[in-house]
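Service request form, structural biology core

Requester: graduate student, group of Dr. S.
Request type: structure prediction, single chain
Budget code: on file
Notes: please return the result as structure tokens.

Sequence provided:
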Amino acid sequence: MNIKDIFTNRHINSLHKKISWYMGGIGLLLWIVLLIKTSASPSLSFHVFLWFIIGWALFDFMIYAFFTLKYTSNRKEILVHFAELTIWIAVIVTVINFNIFGSYV
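Core staff response, request fulfilled:
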């Protein structure tokens, strides 16, 4: 296994790949609807968008964890994926709480 294989294919099987594609399409449509609905208030839309990212990342992690537990014997991948998810959520929550972008948003 080389480095390219680690970063290019994170799907467990073809069913997981199909679900991931559908999830991406639905997420894009939801994001567009959310963007249209919240366009009146830029600061509100930014925070709603960040919370949408957190929710979507949690949903993606749950699907990945389910397929990893059910279809593979290498269960330690879940820990790595969970650590990555935790770091991303911490960064997003920090951006929200400290208002890092200030008056730009």
